[in-house]
What does this fold into?
Amino acid sequence: MKDREIIIGIIAAILLFSLALFGFSGLRTIGGVIVFFFVPFYLILDNFKIESGEKIVFAFFIGLGLFSAVVYYLGIFMSLRLAAGIVFVVLSGAGFLIKKIKS
Amino acid sequence: MKRAHLEAILVTALFLFTLWLWSLPYQENQMPYGEVDAGSHFALGDYMAQTDKSIVNLPHYIDMRYNRDNFYENGKLWYHPPYHVNFALMEITGGERVLPIFLLNTILCSIVVIIIFFVIRNMFGFWPGFLTALLIVFSMRDIMIYLWGQWPQQISYFYTPLVLYAFYKYADSYLNKEPKAVYAYVFAILLGINFWLHPVGCFHTIAALGFFSLFLLIREKKIPFSMKQISICILIFIIMIAIFPLQTASVFVQMKGGSAEDKEASPLYHDFGGLFSWFPWKDVYAFEYKTQPEPYFYYKDMNGGWWTFPFLIAGLAFLFLRRKREDLMLLGFLAGLYFMIHIAILGPGRPERSLAASAHIFYPIIALGVVMLPSLINNFIKMPKKVMKILKYSLITIFIICVFAFNFSPAYSQLKDAYQGIIRITPSQYEASEWLMDNIPESANVSTVGILMMQKERWMRFVGMRYIHGYKPEPPTPDYLLFDYSDWILIGDNGKLNEIAAFEDNVTGSKIYDKNNIKVYKLEG
It folds into this structure.
């Protein structure tokens, strides 16, 4: 079994758990945590030579601060919802772009 | 299946168990709760979610209480924004006001399980990592802070081991002559976020980094980092704290502290005898300042009794005797926390708050004491490898049994019984607050008569997004009066009910809300 399959399995378990305990609102919240705070910075850190577990942990704890810092400034001038969408697309895109350039 | 995958599954199961346990306070009753700190954090995130805009200037209902909390420019947001933007994003994503914010807090406050497992597992192996994570699930001081609502501070404390780990990885690679700059930059970014979440947590981290670097310098007889790379790290950190200038300036203004007279009047000032105790001012804080309840200051109450203490001593002995780089990191962490608690002797600091970070360093040392005890004994009494192995796994088994026997029950009771009954805002009060939000102007002042306690009044203010406060005869003159009979009917206190009714009889205004024994009048004039 590959690392990526384990990560997907763990995420699925967490989502199912949150659905069972907190309903759809809980599922959406935990889904939001994963999508906003984890995914963009994981895609970026995946381009660097650090251990697999480190990528996961660092990505989440960097995302917890940096993602919302950028959203905050954009949110002064536009809808917070729109700002979050833009930041997600730009950061995730940056992750893919770095990968493409490196390969 | 690889061993690493099994470990990941096991620690995920532990994290989910923690989520279940720590979410007990709101699994059945999803009304908001917590002390006034909790309300203010909720209010900032909730305001951004409700208005779909970032907060710069404080709205009236927050400004009336927190105007001066930004010491640099009154009336501006006083916290660095990311934590509360996270709340807003989750409220938007979750689609309701209360559960997403409380669930995010549960995730972030219990995520110390993951951090501590990750750090200790990577430095000392699986069992020390797992035992530390297991013990921290039931850390009473962490649970108390979580329930009271000092969330950003506690999460900022969690970053200390993570930042130290990133720095350790960089310094270790540098000392091995294969420097990995990526760890240095991750370290700098995490330290910046550490500051954003709560400056005190960042000061803890910086103190620990200072001691760790000093210990490495003594051990290795050379500076443990490249001056060029560390200069870049400092630059990254400065840029990050400058990104939010109003909030960072407020921190620095606040750091100037009170007057020299105030400092000297403190019973902590120049109490050098206090250096010989981990927390010497229990009575001052528990009985004089009354900042926290008495058990908060006692090892046995916060750690399921004294049973872990011998392992703490064993773990310390192991670290002092072995002194490898990773051991020095934990000793640096411990020395940094000791420094932050005792710096109050010289004037600055909030030692009672710093105490809340104790478990994050005590527990890894305790777990090391358990796992390394056989090898520690082996230094003095030689044992065959097989006996050592049996002893190690026996100790691990006993430890796990003891955790569930002594630590589970107090933690479960604390969480299960937290803010139950009418000390939490009731659905009737929540509904009335939301009605006010929808039906009266944002600048309105609403005085209340009959609200049971200040925490509930604050929650009504923050849910209602209007300046709802206890009635006082002095200004500001209220625009509205809210009479709440609901709590006193449940308590059955007729005297208090008559008192509220007598007050209501004298009101000259029009009744605009009357539901579930809560009434609101718009006052004339």
In short: The mean pLDDT of chain A is 94. The two ends of chain A are 25 Å apart (CA to CA).
